[in-house]
Amino acid sequence: MTLQQLRYLIAIAEFGSMNAAAYNLYASQSNLSTAIRDLERELGITIFKRSNRGVTLTNEGTELLGYARQVIEQADMLESRYAKHDAGQTRLAVSAQHYAFSVQAFVDVIAECDAQTYEFIMRETSTGQIIQDVGSFRSEIGILYIDSFNRRVIEKAIRDEGLVFHPLFDARIHVFVGSQHPLATRELIEPRDLEEWPRLTFEQGTENSFYFSEEPMSYLAHHKSIRVSDRGTMTTMLSHGNGYLLSSGVLSDEMQLGSIVSVPFDTEERMRVGYLIHRERKPSALLERYIERLSQIIRNNPNVDAFLGA
Q: Residue 237 contacts by C-beta under 8 Å, 6 or more apart in sequence?
C-alpha cells in the first residue's frame, strides 16, 4: 500500500469516476485503474462498484476511505511541517469542545499574527476526537472539561495518549435557554424544572457515552433529546426553540446580545475547564500566546467560580 494509491482512492471517490479523477490529477486512467486494482488485491476487498455511470464505493470501500483520509492528512502535515521551504511556518491547530471563549481567543491570536505565512486550524469537535487529535499531534492543544462524574474515564483517556491536563477555571453549572423561554426569568433552575423541556447536546459520534458528553450531568433523566454537531445550529435551537443546554455559563456574544440567557442550576456540581497538551510537545510562542489570551478572556467572567490559569 502506498500514499499514491490512497490519494488516487480519495480522488476517485470525490469525483465519482476514473476519468474525472485522472483529469484532475494529471494522470492516466490506466494508472488509476491499476493502482486501485492492486490495492483491492492486496487488501482482499472490493473498493468500488463500477458501472456505465461511473464508480461508487462499497461498504468496505467507504470504511477504507475514512482511514485513507486520515493517513493522507497526517502525511500532508508531516510534509508541511518538515519541508525545508516551510520550516519556519507559523502554525496553530486547536481542537475544542464548543466554547465561544476558545474561538474568541483563536480569532484574537490570528488578528495579532504578523507572519508572512501561517496556518491556523480550529476544530470544534467531540471529546474523544479532541483527545485523539492532541495525542496524535494533529492539534497542538485541546480544550475540554472534567467533573466528578467523568473524571476517572477522561483522565485515563488523557494518560493513555500521553497528555497533560492544565486547569483554566472552575465554574458553576448554568442552564442556557432562549430569552423568550419560560425559564429565562428564573433566578435559579432546579432539576425538576427541566423535565418537560427538550435537552440539547452536542453529538459525540461513536463515543456518544455519558462519560464523553460535552455537557455536565449527562446522567440527568430527560424524556426529550436533541443532538446537534455544531455551535451555530445549537445557537439557533436555543434562540428559537424551547430546549435547554447545560454548560459553564461563560458568556458568549449571543448571550451578550440577549438572544440567549444563562441561569444558575441548583446543584453543587462544578465544571473544571482546561486544556490538553502532549507531554512531549514544547509549546511554541504562538501556542503560549493562545493560552495567555484564553486566560485573559475568562479571568474576569462573572460566572467563573475560580480562575486557575496563569
A: 200, 226, 228, 243
Segment 144-189, tens digit of pLDDT: 999 999 999 999 999 999 999 999 999 899 999 999 999 999 999 9
CATH of 89-169+273-307, one of 2.50.20.10, 1.10.1530.10, 3.40.190.10, 1.10.760.10: 3.40.190.10
Distance CA 272, CA 167 (A): 7
Classify the C-alpha dihedral 289-292-297-303 as positive or negative: positive
244, 193 contact by CB (below 8 A): no
Domain with CATH 3.40.190.10 in the chain: 89-169+273-307, 171-270
Determine the Cα–Cα distance for residues 195 and 259; give it in Å rounded to an integer.
23
CA 243 to chain centre: 22
Give the Å distances, CA to CA, from 31 to 118, 269, 288: 35, 60, 47
CATH class (in words) of the domain with range 171-270 = alpha beta
Give pLDDT tens digits for 66-90. 888 888 888 877 776 665 444 456 8
The C-alpha cell at 54 is 461511473
| C-alpha dihedral (228, 232, 238, 242), degrees to nearest 10 | -50
For strand 90-96 and strand 141-146, is the pairing parallel, antiparallel, or unpaired?
parallel
In angstroms, the CA 293 to CA 99 distance is 14
Q: How far apart are CA 178 and CA 237, in angstroms?
A: 8
C-alpha distances in angstroms, 139 versus 29, 79, 104, 218, 269? 36, 16, 18, 27, 30
The topology under which CATH files domain 3-84 is Arc Repressor Mutant, subunit A (1.10.10)
Quickly count: other Cβ atoms within 10 Å of residue 70's Cβ: 14
Residues 259-308 pLDDT 10s: 888 899 999 999 999 999 998 888 889 999 999 999 988 887 776 777 77
Q: How many Cα atoms occupy the beta-carbon half-sphere of 85 within 13 Å?
A: 0
